[in-house]
Amino acid sequence: MLQRLTIPRGPIELAADLHLPDHHTAPLRAVVLSTPGSSVKEQIGANYASRLATRGIAALVMDPAHQGQSGGEPRDLEDPYRRGEDISYAIDALTTTPGIDPRRIGVLGICAGGGYAVHTARTDHRIKAVGTVVPGNMGTSFRSFQADGPAAALDALAAARIAETRSGEMVRVNWLPDTLEDAEAAGVTDIDTTQAITYYRTERGGNAHSTNRRLARGDSLLLGYDAFHLVDQLLTQPLQVILAGRLGNTGSYDAGMQLWKMAPNPVDLMVIDGAGHYEMYDEPQYVDAAVERLAGFYADNL
């Protein structure tokens, strides 16, 4: 059963879907999903939320502020700090939703959303259990992409923002090549990028509200971000980490293992053999295996 929600977030609103078990007895455990960068609620989040609901767990997935059908200007902003705040506003909404137990709310973060979920749970202890699937630390990833180093990238972004301010036009960049042909023309042929394009930019997983564009000025925030800062001191909640067994270039395996080693209360680590990072988004055999493990984790810890 799907319930549409509008979540107040200061002067704007977040568009959200609450996936509920068809047959349940209140009060319910609930999980807020934090999804990958560029994705909207109908994509990866829905794949996991709908499956959690069939296992008796209410699962809320939302479009981030500035993206999808949520409010917020400028559009296409990927602000890691606001992404974390989105989770806390979603918890606000759940605590006043009939049938949800406000004392049994967890979070599930996928890809970049895994880092955002962890970063939020450190200081929002209304979150009682933290699940992650192929978690990424966007700060580490963005710093590693810079050929001349992150400081030089920040210098370039500063100059670009001056130019934007003078022109009045904000620059947007692609998350991914729009097509496989564009990727090939750019010399990008690795399996992870190819699988990402096949998911996000085709009928398989594409959605009209997922623009594949990122506001360039937001990259300065990502370059200075560390999703795991103070995890060793503050993330006292039970932690589940699920990783793809086929290592690629996304960095999620290394990030997940780093998180596992840092966390004060790691409960369960699962590596799904044969799966790639983006295959964890919608390949049924991998998603089902992950959700089965997550459902048990939440049943034990919420």
Kindly summarize this structure in a few lines.
This protein has twelve helices and ten strands. It is α/β, with parallel strands linked by helices.
Structure explained in plain terms:
The protein is α/β, with parallel strands linked by helices and 302 residues long. Helix content is 40%, strand content 22%. The protein has helices spanning 44-54, 80-95, 112-123, 138-144, 150-167, 180-185, 191-200, 219-223, 231-234, 252-262, 279-282, 284-301, and strands spanning 2-9, 12-19, 28-34, 58-62, 100-110, 127-133, 172-174, 213-215, 239-244, 266-272. The strands form two sheets. Strands 1-2-4-3-5-6-9-10 form an eight-stranded mixed beta sheet, sandwiched between helices. Strand 1 and strand 2 form a beta hairpin. The radius of gyration is 18 Å and the shape is globular. The mean pLDDT is 97.
Topology summary:
Elements: E1 2-9, E2 12-19, E3 28-34, H1 44-54, E4 58-62, H2 80-95, E5 100-110, H3 112-123, E6 127-133, H4 138-144, H5 150-167, E7 172-174, H6 180-185, H7 191-200, E8 213-215, H8 219-223, H9 231-234, E9 239-244, H10 252-262, E10 266-272, H11 279-282, H12 284-301
Parallel strand pairs: 3-4, 3-5, 5-6, 6-9, 9-10
Antiparallel strand pairs: 1-2, 2-4, 7-8
Helix pairs in contact: 1-12, 2-3
Keywords:
302 residues; two-stranded antiparallel sheet; alpha/beta
Provide the gyration radius in Å.
18 Å
Q: What does the average pLDDT come to? A: 97
Work out the strand percent. Answer: 15-25%
Strand order of the largest sheet: 1-2-4-3-5-6-9-10
What sort of overall outline do the alpha carbons produce when their principal axes are compared? globular
In DSSP terms (H or I, runs of 4 or more residues), the helix count works out at 12
Separation, N- and C-terminal Cα atoms: 21 Å
The unreliable regions are none
What is the succession of H and E elements? EEEHEHEHEHHEHHEHHEHEHH
What's the total count of β strands? 10
Largest sheet: 8 strands, mixed
